[in-house]
Amino acid sequence: MERKSDVRKKSVILAACAVAAGLALNGCTKKAESSAAASSAGGPNFAKGTPSETIIKTSAAAGKVGNWGLGNEYEILALLSKYGQDQKFLSQAFDMDGFDDSSIWLASAMTYNELGLVKNSYEGGYKYGDTVGTIDMNDEGVAMLEDNIFSNRAFAKANPNTVKAFLAASVKGWKYACEHPDEAAQIVYKYGSSVSSEHQSYMAGEVKKLVETDTKGSTVTNYGNMDTAAMQQTLDLAKKYIKLSDSAASQKLSTFTLDNVMDASYLADAAAGKFGKPEKSSVSIQLKWLPQAQFMGYYVALDKGYYKDVGLDVKIVPGGGDISETTAVYSGQVDFGVTWVSNLIAANAGGMDLVEVAQVYQRSGLVLVYKYAK
Amino acid sequence: MKKHIIKKEAVSTVVYPVVFGIILVVLWQTQILHHLLGTDTFTLPLPSRISSIIGDNIGVIMTNVQATVFVALAGLLFGSLLGFILAMVAAMSPHWGAGGLTIATAFNAIPIIAIAPIFTNLTKDFSSDPNVRSMFAKILVVMITCTVSMGINAYRGFTELKPFSLDLMKSYAAGRWTVFFKLRLPNCVPYIFTALRISVPGCVISAMVSEYFAEYIIGVGRQIRESIVLAQYSTAWAYIVTACLIGVVMYAVLLIVENILLKGRGIK
Question: CA B242 to CA B73: how far, in whole Å?
Answer without folding.
Answer: 17
